[in-house]
Structures are given as structure tokens and as C-alpha cells.
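Why do we care about 3D structure at all? Because function follows from shape, and shape follows, mostly, from sequence. That is the central idea of this module. The next example makes it concrete: a single protein chain, its amino acid sequence, and then its structure expressed as C-alpha cells.
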Amino acid sequence: MELSAEQRQVVDHGEGLVRVRGRAGTGKTTALLERYLRLARETAPSQILFLCRSGAAVARVRDTVLAELAGGFDALPVTTFTGLAFDVLARQSGWPRRLSDAEQRALVRELLADEDPAAWPTLHHLLGRPAFVDEVIRGLEHWRTDEHHDGLDNAWRELAGFAERYDAALADRDVVDAAGLLTRAADGAGESDGGYAHILVDDFETATAATARLLGALIPTATSVCVAANAGAAINASHGANPQFFDALEGADVTLDQPFRAPSARALIRC
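And the structure:
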């Protein structure tokens, strides 16, 4: 496949961090894959970390690179942020059990049902509403992964108090939630001996505060970091995803604006 000049910039990027911007269909993943194969000819695949947004994306990347790699290798770290977190903690002999989303929602609903309204002077009128459970879960992720807590209003102070009770409930059950897993891995990533020489990240517009923090813990020890995102997209925003974490990365910029994917045929659907 003939790469564009901008894609070639991504493939040939040297040291440091580069952000790859582009809408869907502009060849971001293709450029990352070509970069991976170029690096794999120079570096052991075990030293190249490729982070994907989902298990299905991991399978597609692995199938592509395995067909091109020659010879044996001791590891092929192509994974999701959750998979990476488990790997980091496993190297430290930590094997936490992670709550599923359904289990977390059930736990938060149970805890809120037992809350004293006096502990929520601003938000007490929302305690019995099902939608408040989801709002609290999103707030908990932000609170527990964002280190900046200055200038809190009353609602955030009430959530902070609940976060302590929530953390105590997790400790009693000896479990972690998704954000807690990523946060624990980020705290231990600097102590781990599993640093990577090169890091490639796709679809970082789906990053949350927790995934951004884990990536931030890995960047200082890497020779090169290449992060791709459709910064204009709003994917999984209801679960805390935000392109702002991509924009906050400090590095060079490459913009892919040549579409390679043909647009879908238009269809009129009457309901």
C-alpha cells in the first residue's frame, strides 16, 4: 500500500512523542501498523507496546503483525489498557479481582440506598433516582484519577465523602473497579521492570482520566511514543472519555486529512 507523506512521517518518527490527528478513515491505524513493523525490524517485539481500544481491535492488530513478523519472539505486547494494567500488577505479584460494570453499578446503588441524606446536603434529593447511580460512577472515576481537586463546590465535597465510603466497601470485598485497577497500575508502572522502548496507542479519543494517567506513567521511560486519535469525536463520553487527554499530551503533531475509506451510501429510513 502506498502511504501518504503524512503517514510516512508517522512511520519514520524518531524519538519523543508525536500526536497523530485524523478523522475516521484517514489511515491512522494503517500508519501505526506500518510504524510497528518498521520498529520490529530494529527492536525486539517485546519492547514495542501497542495499545488498542478493545479486544476486537487487539485481535485485528495481532493478526496483521503476526503475518509479517519473521522468526521467534518472547512476547507480543499488543493489548488494551485494562490488559496492560493486569500485566503491570502481575509482575508485582498482584492479582486483583476487578468488578464488572454491572457489579460496580449494583454496589454503588446498594451504598446510595443506605446513605444518610444529611451527608448529601446539596444532592440529597437525587439519592433515590436511578440515573444518579450512573452520575456518581462517572464522578468517582474523575475524582479518583484526577489529582487536581482545588476549588471544590459542595456537590464535589459530597462526592468526595462518598468516595471514601465506596473505597472502604471495595477494600472489604477485596476487589477493585476499572478506574482503581488502572490507577493502581499507574502507581506501580514506574517501579516495574517491564518498561517499553516504543509505545503506540490507537483511538486515544476514547481515553479517560484513568487511561491517560497510566499512559503518562509509561511515557518517561520510552524512547518514542506515537498516539493517534480522532480528536473531533465524542466516543464513550458518558463513561468519562474525552479527547482533551489527547490534546494534553506534549509533543509534535502530524495531521492525516486524506480520506482512504469511501463514505457509506446514504439511506433514508422512515419510522
